[in-house]
Every structure is written in C-alpha cells, then in structure tokens.
TrEMBL record, chains A, B:
Name used for this protein in its record: Phosphate-specific transport system accessory protein PhoU
Family matches, as SUPFAM superfamilies: PhoU-like (SSF109755)
Alphabetical keyword list: Cytoplasm, Phosphate transport, Transport
Superkingdom, natural source: Bacteria
Quaternary data: Homodimer.
Stretches assigned to the PhoU domain: 21-107, 123-208
Function recorded in the entry: Plays a role in the regulation of phosphate uptake.
Pfam families recorded: PhoU (PF01895)
Similarity annotation: Belongs to the PhoU family.
Subcellular location: Cytoplasm
Length: 236, 236
C-alpha cells in the first residue's frame, strides 16, 4: 500500500480489507458447513447455514457502504481506487458463494431424509477442492499476491473435471434406477453449485490480480464445465 | 442528473450510461436468440450466440475502464458516484446474463440433434417472461425510474413459479421414460439458467433503485425457487 500523508485514509483502507477478510471467512465457513452437512447427514448444521446467510448479506451491504464512504470522502487514485473497488467486487462474489452454500444446505436437509447414496463421496472430494480454492484466493487477497491469485485462476479446471465426472456418474445412476431421479437431481444441482462456487473463486482471483497489478488475467475465463455440450447418451 | 459546472463530466456520465444501455441491448439479444434457438431448433443461431459472448465480455471490460476513468479523474460524489458504481455493477450482471445465454445456446446445439420434446413450450413461455423482465429493468435504468425497478424486483416470483412447475414436469418426464434423462437434464439446466437470468434482472433492479434513490429495496432478495427444498417423490 502506498505511503499516505493522511494516516486516516490508510486506516480506512485497512478496515475495508479487514471487513472483506471477515466476510471471506464467514463465506468459507458457510460453504464448509453446507458440504459437511451432506457428508455427515447433519440437518441441524444445514439449518444453521440457511439461517446464517443473512449475516453474509449484511456484511456485503456493510462493505459496500464502507467502500462508498472511502470513495466519496477520500477520492482515492490508482492502486487505492482499485483496492476500494476490489472490496466491492469481492464482497459481491462472496455474497454469491453464501447464496450457493445456503442452497446446498437447503438441499442437504432434503437429502438427509432419504437413504444415503454412494455419490456423496465424489461430492465431498469436489467440495474440498472448492474450499481449498476459496481459502487460497482469500489468502492471495490478504497477501496482495498476484501469483497465488493466478494459480487459483488456473486450477479451476480441476473442479470442473470433477464436476463433469460426477455429472456422468449421476446420469448413469438415474438411468439405472429411475426411482433415484428426484434424489439425483438434488445432487446434480448441489454439484453444480459447488462448481459455481469454484467459478466465483476464479472471479475473485481476477479481481485480486487486477487490484495488485492493474492488469487483467484474461478476457476469457477458464471454463471447464463441458457438460453443456455433452452428447446425450441413450439407453434403449 | 445534477447540473454540473464541468460539462465534460456530464458527457462522461452520459457516455457511460449509453455504454451500459448498449451492453444491455446486446445481452438481451443474446438471451433472446439463445431461447429462440431452442424454440426454432436453429443451430446456426445458437452457434452465433456462443461466438457473440466475447463481445459482451469486451463491453463489460470497456465499461469498467470507462467508470474507473470517471472515478479517478472526476471524483464524483453522491448520485454521480452511485451512477458510476451502478454502471460497473450492472455491467457485471449483464456479463452473467451473457454467460447464461451462451450456456443455453451450447445446450440448444445438443438438443437440436435430438427428437423434439413437448416441454420446449413451457420453456419458451418462461424465456419470454425472463426477457420481458430484462427489457423492463433496462428501461428502468435508462429512465432512472425506481418504481419500474421495484416492479421488476417484485415480479421475479412469476419466473420462479414457472421454473418450479417446469422442474416438476421434467422430473415426471424422466421417471416415465428414463431414456429421456440425458435430454431432460439439459432442459433442467436451461430452465435453471433462464431462472438465474431472472435473478440477475432482480439484482439490476436493486442497483437501479439504489442509484436513483440512495435507498435499498431489501436485504433479502425475493427468491422463489423452492425446488431446493422440494420433497423427493419416488415411484416404486
């Protein structure tokens, strides 16, 4: 951070970054708990995630107001301006991750009423990878480290591959036993939500990279969900 | 817009708003074409949507840079500051809508290789509603009309209801004929993407409302996708 003549300004920027870090920690906990609620079939935990989303939303609004005050009162330039805007954008991404965690938790509550299915394992692995990405990108933000941010950005493909494989697995599962279609549909959306959480980490990585360097990682995000173009396999 | 002593500033803000309107028009066209590509089984159009997404992404980046220049050079206050930030946020939402259109188009290409199914009708209705919402919220932005924005925000429930009903329909379809599972899964994600496009319109409505009034529509977005909590129906 540049040396400011106005000490209060530095403090405001630090307070903003600290709010973002706090919100990041909360979003991470929400996502971890939502995934855990499936793996452990823990409905109480899932319900806590659903209830906890409001706190994530409140933090976002607080960060936006904080950032607007900095913009209005301090009129930051260059890297300080990018930091202020990065706070707004990252808070927006974290809010989405919070929404995804809430949606996963809602579906966990339904799944926990049903017989367990073996796919929960693949999902847990995908969840861990997505959480690792979130943790890494939040660290990159705190450390102002563009290289770590770029690494997160590049690694999104791994989650996408896991998703593609789980998607295939689920389709096979449904075709083999149509009674599981309702259940598998929930799993499908949970998996998609975990994959989307990974995309939001990629977005955050782009913001961090731009915040520190002023440059752009790329116009085109690395998107590896190939299921949209998947040929339809029929079992006749 | 307030009377500015610096005419150039007013012009910059107007140019920014005009870029957002242009991007809005493009995102609307992309979504309309993607939905149309399914209804008319028009693969060439779907391919054009996939290729056209890059233009949407480029416009977003251009708007961000334009807004950053306004912030850095003009240091806007109050409503002007909110307008500048609104441009960044709306461009972000429009970029997501562009991504969704691209994803729908990719799935359309796959669907067009298969036998048509009757669900395309319900989907087309849902698509029209979503497009109407997008058009209305872009108008609310151009007119700086918080009441119209609030109306869009309130009407999101209609798309959600359509989605919930289509979701049920698709599940029944799959259970009745497991050979359609692959096909129906594509439809499921297309429907979800249309529903998400509606959510982004809701987000834009919140931004427009805040831009004009300085107030917030609500902390909690009106979310009507209840399928996350849907009980699983089994056919034994």
């Amino acid at each position: 951070m540049a040396d400011h003549t106005v000490r209060a300004f530095t403090e405001q920027l630090e307070a903003l970054a600290s709010s973002v870090a706090q919100m990041g920690g909360l979003a991470e906990a929400q996502l971890a708990d939502a995934i855990d609620a499936i793996a452990r079939r823990d409905t109480a935990r899932a319900e806590a995630v659903v209830a906890g989303d409001r706190k994530v939303d409140e933090l976002q609004q607080q960060i936006e107001e904080q950032a607007l005050r900095v913009l209005a009162l301090r009129q930051p330039m260059a890297v300080d301006l990018r930091e202020t805007l990065a706070a707004i954008k990252i808070a927006g991404e974290l809010e989405r991750i919070g929404d995804l965690a809430k949606n996963i938790a809602k579906r966990a509550i339904v799944l926990n009423r049903e017989q367990p299915i073996r796919l929960a394992q693949s999902l847990a692995r995908m969840g861990s990878q997505s959480l690792a990405q979130l943790k890494a990108v939040l660290d990159a933000y705190s450390d102002r480290d563009p290289d770590s941010a770029e690494l997160v950005w590049k690694q999104d493909g791994e989650i996408d591959e896991m998703y593609n494989s789980l998607f295939r697995e689920l389709l096979t599962y449904m075709m083999e036993d149509p009674r599981t279609i309702g259940l598998c549909t929930h799993f499908l959306f949970i998996a998609k939500n975990v994959e989307r959480a990974g995309d939001h980490c990629t977005n955050i990585a782009e913001v961090v990279y731009h915040m520190v360097t002023g440059g752009h990682l790329a116009l085109e995000r690395p998107k590896g969900d190939t299921t949209a173009s998947a040929r339809i396999e029929k079992k006749d």
